[in-house]
Write a structure and sequence with these properties.
The complex is a heterodimer. In chain A, the strands form 3 sheets. A 5-stranded parallel sheet of chain A has the order 1-11-6-3-2. In chain A, strands 7-4-5-8 form a 4-stranded mixed sheet. A two-stranded antiparallel sheet of chain A has the order 9-10. By secondary structure, chain A is of the alpha/beta class. Chain A starts with a helix and ends with a strand. Chain A is globular. Chain A is built from 6 helices and 11 strands. In chain A, a hairpin with a 7-residue loop joins strand 9 and strand 10 (183-184). Chain A has helices at residues 4-14, 35-45, 56-64, 67-70, 131-134, 151-157, and strands at residues 49-53, 75-77, 103-107, 110-112, 117-121, 137-143, 147-148, 164-169, 174-175, 183-184, 191-197. Chain B is built from 22 helices and 10 strands. Chain B has 3 domains: 3-10 and 300-380, no CATH class; 56-158 and 186-285, Rossmann fold; 399-453, no CATH class. In chain B, strand 5 and strand 6 (210-215) form a beta hairpin. In chain B, helix 16 runs parallel beside helix 18. Chain B is of the alpha/beta class. Chain B starts with a helix and ends with a helix. Helices cover 53% and strands 11% of the residues of chain B. In chain B, strands 1-10-7-4-2-3 form a 6-stranded parallel sheet, sandwiched between helices. The chains are: A alpha/beta, B alpha/beta. At the A-B interface, helix 1, helix 5, helix 6, strand 8 and strand 9 of A face helix 2, helix 3, helix 4, helix 8 and helix 10 of B.
């Protein structure tokens, strides 16, 4: 008996439509005059908050001033120079133990001005990436010069294909499933603060 | 009355609720308009999206094999399912082999289409839908009424009552914030206790062997980053060739669906996480048949944004449940007759053919033309109601004979004035039930025209 794989592929070959050329889609004409300002606006539009600071020292002060940081007991930090963590991530093997994390401070690789999204990967977090979603509050530290205009520019710099997990995060977790009323803090972070440094 | 109209009756009879539903859904359409207008290259994106999808469909077997090869090389296991039963058997088999009895799911219209949940529940597995809207309808034992907003048909007070009854919230809650918080606490426990996570797939990339899942709540990510097993179920049509094609779709998807510039979480999975397992189930379930149809294959371009529902005057005023299918609205009315023409024969008629669906579709599916094409096909196959076929046959007979048409017009104008309106309404069947009989003119259009030309 033929496997379903063969059966499905055969059916698709029988049904094959005429060829259509693949368009070139590498770029978008959208360009913003003031990238950081537009990025900050976009972050606000997706219910996040964007703090623009001049240096890592200023970033540290800004983050320490956040209510989420002041009330946090369990902190996971991958950017200890702005805020030291209280949870030793290296000793965590089972992601379930991260359940009680109040605040995660994580570096973002770059930001997208058109939509306020920040790209990050699990390169450091590995099997502990759950912390990005379990944490009550999230702070992403992004270098100010690492901003792109649109998602086209974002994918032009990404090299996808190697094993691993990467994602765009745009603002805090949200839902509008009850009468279209926007509620922040559905399952993931209740707040997302993007600290743009330099 | 046809099946869709009959099923819509409950909502239509409740005038206040009908208008509430209409306004709620229309509001999402207006958000989409604002978001689309803010993107200067919007129309170019729609062109590109449509062509990428049509290109992929024209080389689907090659791209699927490439995807399988790359995904396997990354450590994922790829499974093929010819139909819904096989899809369900694969998922159940994977869970059973690993002794999983608690599964968390994020939104997947495919698993709805395959009726996976009842199958797993019969086998003793607890299945928790974790998208808030999906969890609400799951607790209410209802199907979703919208593909993006599953509980759009429910009022906040009803959800408060439902939560009180099912998850033990205090009675009388109706604040969306409090209700969402209650669901967050309830579902956190489920996430923590789950042994496996299942997600849908928004886009699978042939070139890299990875796939992308988009959510606003973070439920997909939470669901697959805690337990060690991730099962991703996808229809064959979710494939795109290159990573460089992703921005085209991601810029369109959330803006079209909810008016957001992007979903909160756009997650790219390439292989299992360290120490975990990743299974990808590729499902045909009628898609190859649709691909063979020159008229209807474009429907496979759909990225499930829901824009056609939000704009459809019939969907907004009849509600998603009236369609009786997994995917309601214009795209559902194109897809469902392909899957089961007899059962879904009334759906292509649940449209005014106004074309608004085609205008908002981010991948330029010619939805209203397809609905019209379905009407013809269903008629040819004898699946339209006998009264409609007789009526159309009679109209065709009369319209081909101008003298007979003129005579018929005269008779209607003459007798129409004599007969009581109530009788005329009855004679017109379902059409006249909600309408007034217009005052019949004394003269026909031809007679009027001739009179004017003489001036």
């Amino acid at each position: 008996m033929r496997s379903s794989r063969e059966k499905v592929l055969e059916r698709l070959r029988q049904a094959q439509p005429p060829a259509v050329a693949l368009p070139d889609v590498a770029t978008s004409p959208v360009r913003f005059d003031d990238l950081p300002a537009r990025f900050a606006q976009s972050v606000t539009d997706v219910a996040g908050s964007c703090l623009r600071v001049g240096s890592m020292a200023e970033a540290a002060a800004a983050i320490r001033g956040l209510p989420a940081a002041q009330s946090a007991r369990q902190i996971v930090s991958l950017v200890p120079e702005v805020l030291p963590g209280t949870v030793a991530l290296d000793s965590v093997d089972d992601p379930h133990t991260l359940e009680g994390v109040d605040l995660a401070v994580v570096p973002g690789e770059f930001g997208v001005a058109e939509n306020g999204a920040v790209w990050l990967t699990d390169a450091v977090l590995k099997q502990r990436r759950a912390v990005l979603f379990v944490t009550q509050h999230l702070v992403l530290v992004v270098p100010g010069k690492e901003l792109v205009h649109t998602l086209h520019d974002a994918y032009a710099r990404l090299r996808l294909g190697a094993a691993g997990f990467g994602l765009f995060i745009a603002g805090p977790s949200k839902t509008a499933d009850i009468e279209q009323a926007l509620v922040i803090g559905a399952h993931g972070a209740r707040s997302a603060t993007i600290v743009l440094v330099g | 009355m046809n099946a869709h109209a009959r099923a819509a009756e409950r909502l239509v009879r409740d005038d206040a609720r009908l208008h509430w539903h209409d306004a709620a859904v229309w509001q999402v359409r207006t958000k989409r308009d604002r978001a689309a207008r803010a993107v200067p290259d919007w129309e170019a994106l729609r062109d590109a999206a449509s062509r990428i999808k049509l290109h992929t469909l024209s080389r689907l077997p090659e791209y699927l094999e490439e995807f399988e090869r790359k995904a396997s090389a990354l450590g994922a296991r790829v499974h093929w399912a010819a139909d819904a039963a096989e899809h369900n058997a694969i998922v159940l088999g994977l869970l059973r082999e690993r002794g999983v009895t608690r599964l968390v799911k994020s939104k997947s219209m495919l698993t709805e289409e395959c009726h996976l949940n009842p199958e797993l529940e019969r086998a003793g597995i607890e299945v928790i839908d974790t998208d808030l809207g999906e969890r609400i309808v799951q607790l209410a034992h209802e199907p979703p009424s919208h593909i993006v907003l599953p509980a759009v048909h429910m009022k906040r007070e009803e959800i408060g009552e439902l939560f009180h009854r099912t998850i033990g919230t205090p009675g009388g809650l109706s604040d969306p914030k409090q209700l969402t918080e209650a669901a967050r606490q309830h579902l956190r426990q489920k996430f923590m206790a789950s042994q496996a996570g299942l997600t849908g797939v928004n886009f699978a990339i042939a070139e890299t062997g990875g796939f992308v899942v988009c959510t606003n709540e973070g439920n997909a990510d939470l669901g697959v980053s805690l337990p060690p097993i991730h099962i991703a179920c996808m229809g064959l049509e979710k494939l795109i060739p290159r990573a460089a094609d992703l921005p085209v779709f991601l810029r369109l998807l959330a803006r079209s669906g909810t008016g957001q510039p992007i979903t909160t979480y756009t997650s790219h999975f390439h292989g299992p996480r360290p120490g975990g397992e990743l299974h990808i189930v590729l499902v045909d379930n009628g898609r190859s048949t649709l691909l063979a149809s020159e008229t209807h294959r474009r429907a496979l371009c759909c990225i499930r944004c829901g824009a056609c529902m939000n704009t459809c005057p019939v969907y907004r005023r009849s509600g998603g449940h009236s369609y009786g299918t997994t995917v309601p609205g214009p795209i559902g009315s194109v897809l469902s007759p392909a899957a089961d023409p007899e059962r879904n024969a009334s759906l292509p008629f649940a449209s005014s053919l106004c074309g608004s669906c085609s205008d908002v579709c981010p991948v330029r599916i010619d939805l209203h033309s397809q609905l019209l094409a379905w009407r013809r096909e269903l008629d040819v196959r004898g699946l339209t109601p006998a009264a409609k076929r007789r009526g159309v046959a009679l109209a065709s007979f009369v319209l081909r004979r101008p003298w007979m048409y003129r005579l018929a017009g005269k008779m209607v104008r003459f007798f129409g004035r004599l007969l009581p309106a109530g009788l005329l309404r009855t004679l017109s069947g379902g059409w006249g039930r909600e309408r007034e009989v217009p005052a019949l003119p004394a003269r026909s259009f031809r007679e009027e025209w001739r009179g004017r030309r003489a001036l």
